[in-house]
Design goal:
By secondary structure, the protein is mainly alpha-helical. It is built from 2 helices and 2 strands.
């Protein structure tokens, strides 16, 4: 699997996880002294998607069109 394919897979998995946790939102809670902050987790997932988008945009071919003008 290439790096780009890996990034696409990470993005896809992350978006699926975002869909899961936003379909059934949970409150922040503490259990056995450990804080579970779902809002923070969602923010981290969104940053992961942003990171993937940035890497994919960097790897996308760019076409530049120009036109000369003589006057």
């Amino acid at each position: 699997m290439s790096d780009l394919e890996t990034i696409v897979a990470i993005k896809s998995q992350t978006l699926a996880r975002i869909a899961e946790i936003t379909a059934q939102p949970k409150p922040t809670y503490q259990i056995d002294g450990q804080l579970v902050a779902w809002g923070d987790y969602l923010s981290q997932l969104q940053r992961t998607v942003d990171w993937c988008n940035d890497r994919l945009a960097d790897a996308s071919p760019v076409e530049v069109r120009s036109q000369g003008y003589t006057g």
